[in-house]
Design brief:
It is a single chain. With 451 residues, the chain is of the alpha+beta class. Among the domains are: 3-151, no CATH class; 207-323, NADPH-cytochrome p450 Reductase, Chain A, domain 3 (Up-down Bundle); 406-450, no CATH class. It has 17 helices and 13 strands. The protein has helices spanning 29-36, 45-54, 59-68, 73-80, 83-97, 102-119, 137-151, 207-217, 229-234, 249-255, 263-273, 276-283, 292-301, 307-311, 320-323, 369-377, 418-427, and strands spanning 161-172, 178-185, 198-201, 224-226, 246-248, 330-333, 343-349, 352-355, 364-367, 385-391, 406-410, 434-439, 446-450. A six-stranded antiparallel beta sheet has the order 6-3-10-1-2-7, with helices on one face. A three-stranded mixed beta sheet has the order 11-12-13, with no helix packed on it. Strand 8 and strand 9 (364-367) form a beta hairpin. The longest helix has 18 residues, at 102-119. The radius of gyration is 25 Å and the shape is globular.
């Protein structure tokens, strides 16, 4: 805003609203944001194009970018040492370059647009990527755009918050299943969210699951494992482990993807063992009915020595870091609103299921990794730091008109995110009618309410 509350006009806006302006790398919008967020690398094809077109900009555009470069906002935030400021800055960078941020949404829109335009006869993009429709040029461009997005992060593709657990409350619902309200203290973190947003949690495996896997590997857990690049990058997301190049095997299993078995891991193990039963499991797409420990046990019974995985040297195909990748984020709806004492609430059911005995799977009781991790937090001491990040869905939230009727549908616990949406509508003074339908996973029951 300028003087007297009047909006400032940026130098690269269209002359009038009815005349389209330039786009993509032909305008300094993306370059301006790159400077603001401290981008250092321009090694990708799109990065080269960004630097090349900058030299062709009008002089007042170039002056604008030069002025932005006089002060490093990234260095200022780091030098200031203010936790809240850093949190807000990281949230802003996620909104720009994160997995659901501006650049990723731009990539998805460009993918759909170019699919149609090349089908209609287009032969080349503004950035110089050329080809025919049969060559699927938009696939190449989508890859280039994603690599360019990742350049904004350098080596670390995500910016998590390490937030302390405040409390966990157990709730017995109408179906005699336990539902837990998990409360995180986000005061001073810079985290901002609105009703309808989601929270990603980076879970840890239980000590029991780690011990089962260690027994299957024939290891004690104290063995040191040299990490590959994906694992070294992953430790940036774990409190107290950033910069580590090796881990005790037990810690690697605590942070690794052990259940269910990933298809890529099952394929890699089949390549190592040529096991016929594992091939049948893969052909039946039943690898997700197994956990790593019992799959390794099955392979050991057939003659494979699982010790080879942790005894292998980095770079070997059977090195354990290639078989067991780092754990992934688990996404949960936020059930609170920002006004609730700087807290973030999750309402989570303890997910469990059974695999039936068959030619492709053993009979076993299974538990969800994320929900089990959150349930175990109730038994630990408050204050444990958990890696979280807030995800802002682009089209999931309350309508601007508080009088508009609202109907909500939810699975899972059937509570979140309805609680947050209703609380926000009440807080904002909305008068629209609200209805909710909850589908419970444990048995086919629907609950409807009106307020």
């Amino acid at each position: 805003m300028g003087e007297n509350g009047r909006a400032l006009r940026l130098p690269f806006q269209p002359a009038t609203e009815s005349i389209p302006g330039p786009s993509g790398t032909a305008i300094p919008s993306f370059t301006s944001l790159d400077i603001f967020f401290g981008r250092q690398s321009y090694a990708t094809t799109v990065g080269h194009e960004t630097q090349r077109t900058r030299d062709w900009f009008p002089v007042h555009w170039r002056d604008w970018l030069t002025a932005l470069e006089q002060i490093s906002i990234t260095d200022y935030v780091a030098h200031k040492g203010d936790k809240t400021l850093k949190g807000v800055y990281d949230e802003a960078r996620e909104a720009y370059a994160g997995e659901t941020g501006l650049l990723q949404r731009h990539r998805l829109k460009a993918y759909g647009f170019l699919d149609l335009s090349f089908k209609a006869g287009r032969a080349k993009t503004l950035g110089g990527i050329a080809g025919s429709y049969s060559e699927r040029v938009w696939d190449k461009l989508a890859t280039e755009l994603d690599e360019s997005r990742m350049e904004r992060y350098g080596r670390t593709p995500s910016t998590p918050h390490m937030v302390p657990l405040k409390r966990v409350e157990s709730i017995r619902d109408h179906e005699l299943d336990f539902v837990r309200k998990v409360v995180f203290d986000i005061a001073g973190t810079g985290i901002r969210y609105v009703a309808g947003d989601r929270c990603a949690i980076l879970p840890e495996n239980s000590p029991e699951l780690v011990q089962k896997t260690l027994r299957a590997l024939g290891a004690t857990g104290a063995e040191r494992v040299q990490l590959n690049r994906p694992w070294r990058d992953h430790l940036h997301l774990r409190h107290g482990y950033d910069g580590q190049t090796e881990l005790p095997l037990a810690t690697l299993l605590q942070f690794g993807r052990l259940r269910p078995v990933e298809r890529t891991a099952a394929l890699a193990l089949h390549k190592l063992t040529n096991n016929e039963r594992l091939l049948a499991i893969l052909d039946g797409w039943a690898e997700d009915q197994w956990e790593m420990w019992d799959l390794l046990g099955m392979l050991a019974t057939a003659g494979y020595n699982p010790k080879r995985l942790w005894q292998a040297t980095p770079g070997d195909y059977e090195h354990i870091c290639r078989i067991i990748p780092p754990e992934r984020w688990r996404l949960y709806s936020i059930s609170s609103i920002q006004d609730e004492a700087q807290e973030l609430h999750l309402t989570v059911g303890h997910f469990h299921y059974e695999t039936a005995a068959s030619e492709l799977s053993p009979p076993a009781q299974r538990r969800g990794t994320g929900s089990s991790f959150l349930a175990r937090l109730a038994d630990g001491a408050p204050g444990k730091l958990v890696s979280v990040k807030v995800v802002h869905p682009p089209r999931f939230g309350l309508p601007a008109d508080g009088k508009r009727p609202l109907v909500m549908f939810a699975g899972g616990t059937g509570i979140a995110p309805m609680r947050g949406l209703i609380a926000e509508r009440v807080r904002a003074g909305g008068r629209g009618r609200c209805g909710s339908c909850s589908a419970r996973a444990s048995r086919p029951i629907f609950i409807t309410k009106r307020s």
